[in-house]
Write a structure and sequence with these properties.
The protein is of the alpha/beta class. It folds into three domains: 16-37 and 251-398, Rossmann fold, CATH 3.40.50; 61-239, Substrate Binding Domain Of Dnak, Chain:A, Domain 2 (Up-down Bundle), CATH 1.20.1270; 406-637, Rossmann fold (3-Layer(aba) Sandwich), CATH 3.40.50.2030. The strands form four sheets. The chain has a six-stranded parallel β-sheet. The protein has a six-stranded parallel β-sheet with strand order 13-12-11-14-15-16, with helices on both faces. The protein has a two-stranded antiparallel sheet with strand order 1-2. Helix 19 links the parallel strand 11 (444-448) and strand 12 (474-479). Helix 4 (78-112) packs across helix 24 and helix 10 packs across helix 24. The protein is globular and about 65 Å long. Bound molecules: iron/sulfur cluster (SF4) and Broken Fe4S4 cluster (MSK).
Length: 639
């Protein structure tokens, strides 16, 4: 066994389990994302600044920020090229979320019509979504209501009218509708908006950077309401509203003596079925000589099945190859988004099977098991049996599972948070939280979301920033791969409250946690779910603003994506600034080549929506910047 050198990978990760596996990869000559990052250096300066254009075949054109040329062949300057590239990035993110939401919608349609083996577990959600859509509920079965909800959603996708999206109108306050209407950014049919934005950014169409930035805001709303909100609403109907659940996080959750199956990607339609059939087929694994079947999650598939099933988290985005490098993973099943094409190459060094499940998410050399809502039971059994068969091929000499893991609590939907607070004030559940904010016991709240990015030391910016926020009595909610990051270091536990929260925040968390029957404080970071679950944060902000009778932009809150990598993180951030939220990004986005775009995003935007971007790669300065904003909002509210 190689001696474990903790800290020798301090420029790559702060996670000791990840460091141990990078060491193992080096020893076993397995290439990882960090090796490929080194091979990419130096990364292209034009790309970094966003001033490279490939939108027509006369290009590529690039602008020299320090000299000539100042324009591309068609005359597009840096401002235009950067604005066009930014909108296309946001379109990429929005399209991913909207397609995800559409897949969930298709699954709900088939299930509600009795054609797919999914029970509708979220009866409460059916009622609340129907109510917000204005669908009468009395005397109707869950299935009938679900079918009406599906029709309402599909109406948005097939709308020819100039009316804004129904799902958006049903979700946001009239104040926001009016503000967005004045800006001309209310989206209509989401598919049409995505098409129009691709058209708008093609060669020889929109030459106005400002107009393109307004379309970027509109695309943020497409993401927020046709992607995040609709996706979460539909998934809660299918799989149930999450409630608090305790589990564990980090590579140490992998088992030495069980068949390890890792779910990775985003779609609970796949991962829920894998969990269900792993439980049902446990006997077959035992017959094959294993102690059972252990399912663990990577990225947002992990978050989805953690939130509703208590499945442990194996790791976030940068740990996906490392899970295979343990030598203990029999099978990794992916669906859409965030899985590296390298997975099959890494898996080839071990006995691990890689299974793809969707027509748009395939990998050469992987096993393709096409899941549909109708065949999900059959395909999930096939997948689990493939994993059981692979167990016999596990090479004990190659197995090294890090011991590191931490307890982690998840399942903090808005419904859960309200339920916990209602133990303090049943008639007025939000009042205790608001009272504590007014009294200064909770300075404010920050939603910490998004990914890992190989440009940043894995988890470091997230952890350092959140430590500062909590110590200063700022409540933190988290989703996505940052929730994994925080889970690994104990932020999602009651003990984490004692370790990280400031005195006043700890007192509040203790009062709520004890009233809710947890026998101790609430975790100082509330895990609200996957990337699409960011809509839960939007719902919470809407409820708090509604209670106080102010706009979201007036609340003492901020958002942060300290280690973002995916286009989806940019589109989520754009939705957040459209809502009026100061949104920090800890990785510099490719916009600095345009002084105009940079100025609008980090300054002028505030005059339009109340939100803007804060770009800061230092986690301590980022925390300071958000807290300064929170204090200014408190002052403006007179608290
Ligand atoms: Fe160059 Fe203009 Fe074509 Fe872009 S659209 S590649 S700037 S000619
Ligand atoms: S999975 S989008 S790396 S959070 Fe949602 Fe993680 Fe970012 Fe993918």
């Amino acid at each position: 066994m190689c001696e474990f050198h903790q800290g020798s990978h301090s420029h790559q990760t702060i996670d000791p389990a990840a460091a141990e596996m990078i060491e193992k990869a080096n020893r076993e000559n397995v290439e990882t994302t960090w090796d490929r990052f080194e091979q990419q250096k130096p990364q292209c300066g034009f790309g970094d600044l966003g001033v490279c254009c490939r939108n027509c075949l006369q290009g590529p054109c690039r602008i020299n920020p320090f000299g000539e040329p100042k324009e591309g062949i068609c005359g597009a300057d840096a401002d235009l090229i950067v604005a066009r590239n930014l909108l296309r990035t946001i379109v990429g993110g929005a399209a991913s979320h909207v397609d995800h939401s559409y897949m969930a919608l298709h699954c709900l349609k088939e299930a509600a019509e009795g054609k797919a083996p999914y029970a509708l577990k979220g009866a409460d959600k059916i009622k609340s979504v129907a109510a917000k859509l204005g669908i009468a509920t009395q005397g109707k079965s869950d299935n009938a209501l679900a079918q009406e909800i599906v029709r309402a959603a599909l109406a948005d996708f097939s709308s020819y009218s100039d009316e804004p999206m129904g799902w958006l109108k049903a979700t946001v306050s009239p104040g926001l509708l009016e503000a967005w209407s004045k800006l001309g950014i209310l989206p209509k049919n989401p598919d049409r908006e995505i098409r129009t934005a691709m058209h708008q950014t093609s060669m020889g169409v929109d030459g106005s950077p400002i107009n393109l930035l307004l379309s970027s805001l509109k695309m943020g709303l497409v993401d927020g309401y046709a992607g995040l909100q609709m996706g979460t609403d539909i998934q809660d109907i299918l799989f149930g509203i999450p409630y608090p659940v305790k589990t564990e996080a980090n590579l140490g959750v992998l088992s030495h003596d069980k068949v390890n199956v890792v779910v990775h990607g985003h779609m609970p339609e796949v991962s829920e079925k894998i969990v269900e059939w792993a439980r049902k087929l446990e006997g077959e694994a035992i017959k094959a000589g294993a102690a059972g079947i252990n399912v663990a999650g990577i990225c947002c598939s992990g978050n989805e099945v953690l939130m509703r099933q208590g499945v442990p988290l194996a790791g976030n985005y940068l740990s996906q190859e490392l899970a295979i490098i343990t030598g203990a993973v029999e099978l990794i099943v992916v669906d859409v988004q965030c899985f590296m094409p390298s997975l099959t190459k890494v898996a080839a060094c071990y006995h691990t099977k890689v299974v793809t499940t969707t027509p748009i998410g395939q990998l050469p050399d992987a096993e393709y098991i096409p899941f549909t809502p109708e065949n999900a039971d059959v395909k999930a059994q096939e997948t689990i049996r493939m994993a059981i068969a692979a167990y016999a091929k596990r090479d004990a000499a190659k197995v090294q599972i890090p011991t590191h893991k931490s307890e982690a609590w998840g399942g903090f939907s808005v419904e859960t948070i309200v339920q916990a607070l209602s133990k303090l004030d049943a008639a007025n559940p939000l009042k205790p939280l608001i009272d504590n904010i007014v009294a200064g016991n909770v300075l404010g709240a920050v939603g910490v979301v998004g990914c890992n990015n190989v440009k940043a030391v894995q988890d470091q910016q997230t952890v350092e920033m959140v430590k500062d926020l909590l110590a200063n009595n700022v409540l933190v909610v988290a989703t996505g791969c940052t929730a994994h990051a925080l889970a690994k270091y104990g932020f999602l536990t009651p003990a984490g409250a004692k370790k990280y929260a400031g005195e006043k925040l700890l007192a509040v968390l203790t009062a709520v946690g004890e009233a809710a029957g947890l026998g101790g404080p609430l975790p100082p970071v509330l895990h609200m779910g996957s990337c699409v679950d960011n809509s839960r944060i939007g719902d919470l902000l809407g409820a708090l603003a509604g209670y106080l009778g102010v706009a979201i932009k007036d609340l003492p809150v901020a958002a942060s994506a300290p280690e973002l990598q995916h286009e989806k993180a940019v589109s989520i951030g754009t939705w957040a600034v459209a809502l009026g939220v100061l949104t920090h990004v800890g990785v510099v986005p490719p916009v600095l080549g345009s002084p105009l775009v940079t100025k609008v995003l980090t300054g002028d935007l505030e005059g339009l929506t109340g939100g803007k971007f804060l770009v800061e790669t230092d986690p301590h300065l980022a925390a300071e910047g958000m807290m300064a904003h929170i204090r200014a909002k408190r002052k403006a509210l007179g608290i």
